[in-house]
Amino acid sequence: MARRVSCLTVSSRFLSVCLALALIPGVAGAESPLDTWLPARAREHAAWFAAKAAGPEGQTAELGLWRERAEGDPGIPDFVPPSSLAPLIRAVEAGVVNITTVGPRSNGLEGMKRATGSGFVLTPDGHVVTNNHVVASAQQIAVRLADGREFAASVVGRDASTDVALLRLSGVDLGRLPALYLGDSDRMAVGDWVVAIGNPFGLDHSVSHGMISAKERVLGVGQFDDFIQTDALINPGNSGGPLFNMKGEVVGVNTAIISQGQGIGFAVPINLVKELLPNLRENGKLERGWLGVVINDDGVNGGERRAPLVKDVYKGSPAAAAGIRSGDRLVAVNGRPIGSYLQLLRKVALLAPGTEAKLSLMRGDATQDVTVRLVARPAQEATEGLIQRTTSEEEVGLVLRDLTPEVAAPLGETAWSGALVSGVAPRSPADSAGLRAGDVVTEVNRRRVKDAAGVRAALSKGSAGASILLRVKRGDALQYIAVAR
């Protein structure tokens, strides 16, 4: 096999030979033409070799197994490594509080137990945010500030599903408390630096720092799972404390840890907390708003999330009053984009009944905004009969027709050999899957069908959310097409 030799290796060897020849002393008293020619050639090749090694624009070329930045290269654009977090910590630590509770022991044991947690000052007049599990069974709550002052506190509202609680301090020396600024957790990205301050194991105002490890973590604790994961150390006693960004804004409420792991902690996003707090202040608990739609969440398409698709609208519901229809896609609530059914559920359910919300929707290719006044969620039995039912074929966006002899003959098809697709609803699951008018459906989920009624019957047997496998004849070709519902 022929061995490959790099151009740079040959050049360097040639340069060495030239230099060696240039250094050979000439015959005494006689000047050879080589005496001037060889040094000149050696200088030219040395200059060429240096330029080749430097690469374009002065950057070091890949000469071997790695590459190195040229001297003076600024490195990664827009990256400024932090030198010290001390100024940030000094600016925000006064708003972090330690919480001590006294309550009955669990498991039926006699006596009282003391527990500790963390929190932060929300308003100058004495509202404090912490975790629900910190104060859930407390009979007495004491809140101590960084300056040593201590106040009794009472629960204004709390919610177990989000693990958020709102407290109110009381006392004669409240004054104006050092309230913290809240940030925008939606703008946080994986890799952003964060700082956690709290009371782990009773160690007053302990500071840890790290970064956002992941977003929208689902831990299986409820329908409002939407946690920020961080490697900033969070330990027992940090619960309820703030997670700060590099502007000193609270972007999360530290909530949970994985006991078997290290550097794996979770925080409730502050945007979720902001949506919940007015509800807790007014109602003392999560009074969930109700929109009145049934959603067909068709998930991810081409690596991108798809806005939830309205499958049905309840008669007399806020959605019906606002003019929302089946087939609309809900793309934003109060200006915040949504990309899944769970995001829609979180944003709507956290709003109290009576709240007006602005919904952005797509109908066909047009986007429009509607205003909806949410109502209290009715009991399940009260909603029975309110739904405007659709047929199975409408759910997936198909318009079907029997292949009667009169219909089949002009198409060159065999009568009663399937169901003719005479129309496909725009932006429907069938449309997204690539079905077209003129297709003939011959099987549904591996079962042969001979007419439109057979297709409807097969579709009605599928479970909600399950994909449908259709065998379709298009011209002379047969193919399988999966339709998400």
From TrEMBL:
PANTHER family: SERINE PROTEASE FAMILY S1C HTRA-RELATED (PTHR22939), SERINE PROTEASE HTRA2, MITOCHONDRIAL (PTHR22939:SF129). This is HtrA protease/chaperone protein. Belongs to the peptidase S1C family. Residues 285-365, 384-476 form the PDZ domain. InterPro entries: PDZ, PDZ_6, PDZ_sf, Peptidase_S1_PA, Peptidase_S1_PA_chymotrypsin, Peptidase_S1C. The keyword Hydrolase applies. It comes from Pseudomyxococcus hansupus. The keyword Protease applies. GO terms for molecular function: serine-type endopeptidase activity. Residues 1-30 form the signal peptide. GO terms for biological process: proteolysis. Gene3D superfamilies: 2.30.42.10, Trypsin-like serine proteases (2.40.10.10). SMART domains: PDZ. Keywords: Hydrolase, Protease, Signal. It comes from the Bacteria. PROSITE patterns: PDZ (PS50106). SUPFAM superfamilies: PDZ domain-like, Trypsin-like serine proteases.
